[in-house]
């Protein structure tokens, strides 16, 4: 979550996040899936970066360096000495005119360590007095990149960030997720000096809003916990300590004095409702301190994770489309410049373990596309700084569609999501083969592996930019026409979708007949023909598009 470093805004925003009701749009949602409960055995961490405005983000690559004497600096005066050698990593940074520091929302380094940060949080007033923030301390703006530059494992990332807080203090409250292919950790920074880090269980999941989440802690269990010096004593002194039935200190409940704002707590319930409905129940309970970790009802797929980041509580009493529920704080909001999901594969070399799935402008009306590990040259469109609309910017290619779909979700959301989900299914179906090829290349020639990862991302993004143009044109046409009709005559959006993409994903062989201008689909004894001459299909930039309803029936 974006925070300016002025003391006035930090204080006001902290109080707002704790006490507000459902309506805040200035917040983020974190996610974790353990490798024992993911459908493919991968570790998954994720986060939507919610800012509340149109906000261009840039995906860039930072090379490794052996230059001595460097520091990691922030605009509030924080400066952390870096080791002589720092690792290469990718980062989703702020555009250069944003004016509040780097804010590298997610980083993945060459050692296969992923860091997403942060989900901002704050304690109660008594806790903030007990552990006041340090104005020139560590901020969200540099947390992911500081860890990515210096850590070769998730646990090392924890140690680096804890050392920064021990030495310089923290300017704010933050929740950070870190993972490598073996394990994942959560780090909660509670105030200026106090924090708790905990290894996350392999057989559980988490979805959480803007509040602290860690439950019972055991400072003596150094394999699973890192607890700052004096944390429990500070709680006791402030008379905030809360314990479970076994006498263990409850970290988050103590720091928050047992209170949570509905704007965040409802997102906890929403994630649980999707992944573990048997535990969530049919209704949200404002007084329930929903747990960080729980066991999902079924193995969690990547598509399940994407659906979490599209969640507006559809099918529940809190659906934002229902009368009286418009003010609820959904997981999916319009003011999201990026959502990132990092998938850690256990059977890859560590440096090629992490696939970053990016949804520029958020998951609701955009597409999650994969960035393979090992990429060293990112497409220009991903790193183009464009605070205002620019047709060459990847961010704006998707934001313009989001802007139209947001005008009337009832008419446009499903059609836009159908279009992009079809593309996601193709990527997911391909990812095992892509990773196998990358692994083979990496074993023989790392330079060729990098070329492969670079080309894969470049080709995919180029294809997506063209598809976004086709989707945008079709959607804009309908939005414009609907604007001239009474609401009762407005039409629901059904997109045309790329036929070859959909058909091949479903196992069909696709052939084009130039003479008849027709496409033939063959699968075993089944044959289907679609002609562009009779209006049942249309060709845009050399790609044949057909109505989504046709593809759905394949």
Structural account:
- With 554 residues, the protein is of the alpha+beta class.
- The chain has helices spanning 7-19, 125-130, 143-150, 154-168, 231-237, 251-255, 262-275, 277-280, 302-308, 394-405, 409-444, 446-483, 499-505, 548-552, and strands at residues 29-33, 43-49, 57-62, 71-73, 79-81, 89-94, 106-109, 114-120, 174-179, 184-189, 195-199, 205-208, 225-227, 338-344, 354-360, 369-371, 496-498, 509-513, 518-523, 526-531, 538-540, 543-547.
- The strands form 5 sheets. The chain has an 8-stranded antiparallel beta sheet with strand order 3-6-7-8-9-10-11-13, covered by helices on one side. Strands 12-1-2-14-15-16 form a 6-stranded antiparallel beta sheet. It has a 3-stranded antiparallel beta sheet with strand order 17-22-21.
- The protein is globular, with a radius of gyration of 24 Å.
Q: Residue-averaged pLDDT, rounded?
A: 93
Radius of gyration: 24 Å
Spatial separation of the terminal alpha carbons: 42 Å
**Main pleated sheet:** 8 strands, antiparallel
Low-confidence stretches: 4-26
Structural class: alpha+beta
Helix count from the secondary structure assignment: 14
Beta-strand content estimate: 15-25%
Write a concise synopsis of the structure shown:
The chain has 554 residues and is of the alpha+beta class. It is 32% helix and 20% strand. The longest helix has 38 residues, at 446-483.
